[in-house]
Amino acid sequence: MWRFALIREQKDWHFDTEQAFKNCTGRKEDRQPSILSFVPKTAPLRAKQAITDKCVDFCCQDLRPFSVVTGEGFKRLAQELINVGSTFGRVPVDSVLPHYTTVSKACVEKAEAKRSLLIERVKKTLASGYDVAMSTYVWTDDYRKMSYIAITCHFTETDFNLVGKTLTTAVFPAEDAKTGKNIRRELVRLLVNTFGLEPSSLSRIVWVTDQGSNIVKALEPYKRLSCLDHVINTVLRHGLDKDALSANAPDIGETISAAKSVVRFIKQSGLAAQLSKTVLQMGETRFSTVYLTLKSVHEIYNELCEKLQSRGEEERMDNIAPDLLDFLITFLEPFYAAQRELEGDKYTTLNLVCLWNEKLKKHCQPSSTDNPQQAFVRQRHSELLDQKIKIHMLHKVALFLWPTFNKLKMMTPTEVSEVHAHVRTLVEEDDERGEATTTSDNEEEAHTSAVSHLQPNEKGAGGVDGPSSGWRCGWSFFFRLEVWMVLLLQAGGVDGPSSPGWRCGWSFFSRLEVWMVLLLQAGGVDGPSSSGWRCGWSFFFRLEVWMVLLLQAEDVDGPSSGWRCGWFFFFRLEVWMVLLLQAGECKGEDTVSQPAGDVLLTQGKTVKIECTFQTLGTPYLFWYKQDGQEAPKYMMQRSRIGSDWTETRKSQEFNKDRFEVEAEKNTVSLKIQDVDVTDSAVYYCALRPTVTGNTKTLNKNLWSKDNTILQ
């Protein structure tokens, strides 16, 4: 009997005769893989030998390196060809491989598609208020003498592996000199005009570059970090300079020059093939190769002496002192190790800068066993490290976020306090950014979704039904609390989940989560303007005070007085939580005030703009400047830890000596010295940084007593 399959298509019925034929003959398409398809298959030895012969022919005929057959790209191509043959059988290779022009065009299209995705990702990140890391460099082609500029974007994937993607490589205008001004103009042209980034978002890009004067000048208005790998190379270049060594360490300088000369002679004379190990030549620009050259000479020192003596060239080894060779290898080894680790492109290296800086400086301290020349080399490199390496707050924060070193033992107590204050500021800024993003997403969803949602003032069961502001309040609190718990666990030397202090921490978290659920379900914790929210912040401040007292306890590592102190604190915490949940109104709020009115000054004078504040929490005071109708610009910030004020942290634009913030008790004043015409603006004082007081307009008196214009 014939069986026909009916297919509905555009309201017409028709018979699928092909399917009917398959059903009739019983030849059904087998789409389910057999169990044998999961068993790994291997090619026979005869087939492997044939492939080896073809690989030899490929490398010889096309002049390709033998290592090309181990490349991941070659393997993927070969696997795809095997798959095509398995599916379609034996087909001519010309019918499968594309023309080289097709490959070229497809390469451009694929690159543009990937670049577009990368640019959109960068735009989205910058629009969200987060920073983006980029690096740039300019170089010249030695053959055609053409100059190029490249921009590379660095970020981490979801698996936290570091990824570097080249955003662009463009020809630098031949008619322009590679000055800082021209490089900056080219970078802005590429990022803004070509890729469509907002000009205002460029301030959120963190650049990592070498210390070339033109690059430093080009990125002066933006955030820039010096690549420590390049800095170390610069230190070695100056520290091992022949002219500098000839005056104070002539024997060491002669040892380096003699080793370089011997290696060059061995390469040119053909002796390299007769040696048991290869000797390595020094690079002209990478001074880490000095270590490799000296080490290769040291490993076959006796063999080199014998070979050169057999040819009557033994005097070439006379100026290589074995003891100085040992010293140089030992001294340069940490520099080489630092450069190798800092060159990693699959993991973050920002957190390594502080560690290697401290290790290298300690390594360069004079030793009692050093002779005068060796002591000079150490001292010279120590001075160069102090001059060249600049530690930025980003380096310190990166190290703090590394759990292994978050105690920051290599820093002074003042530096540790500054790092903690900066991290708190970043956490609060991230909270505000998250609130703004969530609010924006909710508004967009309300316009685009046809699904019914609760109104802003309506609550689900218990008043908390998802990632609302109250929910975010809880998570913000937990994040802040985690920082404190890290300090708490470290106070007693707790370093693993098996210790009592660690279990105490988790027990506390478990109990606290219950209270947080009750807190989130309570009414009046639905936004930063509500009394419940302010009451929450008041509670958080009290919690921080209790945490400080807890950390000052004798110990937190077992059922001792410190343990009892911890449980006593938890009991008090529960009392505060009960009071918080029962509080109908909590009137605590932050205030900031500035004297109203304008200030008129003669150019060159000094002005002080006062700002007073009241807050229950840790004060973070910010100053802003607004020119005309432009948006306010962030100037600087100071915070107070206990009764001590941290140092002023300034933005790049206002990082000058004439701008300063003077703080005492509840007054934070902006001081501007040597007032200039460009300082005419409205100045804002803000707290956390959302609460602003009265504005203060500063005008310059452009007329002197004899009514002449000051230029």
Globally, the shape reads: globular
Low-confidence stretches: 1-17, 25-29, 443-475, 494-503, 523-535, 553-565, 582-588, 691-711
Total number of strands: 20
What is the average per-residue confidence, as pLDDT, rounded to a whole number?
76
Number of helices: 20
**Helical content band:** 40-55%
Could you give the distance between the termini?
Answer: 106 Å
Number of domains: 6
Rg, alpha carbons: 34 Å
Beta-strand content estimate: 15-25%
Briefly note the structural class of the backbone. alpha+beta
Largest β sheet strand count, sense and barrel closure: 8 strands, mixed
Organism: Mugilogobius chulae
Protein name: Ig-like domain-containing protein
Region (Disordered): 427-465
InterPro entries: Hermes_transposase_DNA-db (IPR018473), Ig-like_dom (IPR007110), Ig-like_dom_sf (IPR036179), Ig-like_fold (IPR013783), Ig_sub (IPR003599), Ig_V-set (IPR013106), RNaseH-like_sf (IPR012337), Vacuolar_transposase_reg (IPR052717)
Please give the structural blueprint:
Blueprint lengths: L5 E4 L2 E4 L1 H9 L19 H17 L10 H17 L11 H28 L4 E9 L6 E10 L5 E10 L8 H15 L10 E5 L3 H6 L4 E4 L1 H12 L2 H7 L1 H20 L19 H11 L1 H10 L11 H21 L10 H11 L8 H17 L4 H8 L12 H36 L20 H23 L8 H22 L9 H21 L9 H22 L8 E3 L4 E5 L4 E3 L2 E3 L5 E7 L6 E9 L2 E2 L3 E2 L8 E6 L2 E6 L8 E7 L3 E2 L3 E6 L10
Q: Summed up, what is this model?
A:
The protein is built from 20 helices and 20 strands. The protein is of the alpha+beta class and 711 residues long.
Overview of this structure, please?
This protein has helices at 17-25, 45-61, 72-88, 100-127, 180-194, 213-218, 228-239, 242-248, 250-269, 289-299, 301-310, 322-342, 353-363, 372-388, 393-400, 413-448, 469-491, 500-521, 531-551, 561-582, and strands spanning 6-9, 12-15, 132-140, 147-156, 162-171, 205-209, 223-226, 591-593, 598-602, 607-609, 612-614, 620-626, 633-641, 644-645, 649-650, 659-664, 667-672, 681-687, 691-692, 696-701. With 711 residues, the protein is of the alpha+beta class. It folds into six domains: 1-29, no CATH class; 43-97, Arc Repressor Mutant, subunit A (Orthogonal Bundle), CATH 1.10.10.1070; 104-226, Nucleotidyltransferase, domain 5, CATH 3.30.420; 232-404, no CATH class; 462-582; 591-701, Immunoglobulins (Immunoglobulin-like, Sandwich), CATH 2.60.40. The strands form five sheets. Strands 9, 12, 13, 14, 15, 18, 19 and 20 form an eight-stranded mixed β-sheet that branches. The model is unreliable at 1-17, 25-29, 443-475, 494-503, 523-535, 553-565, 582-588 and 691-711 (pLDDT under 50).
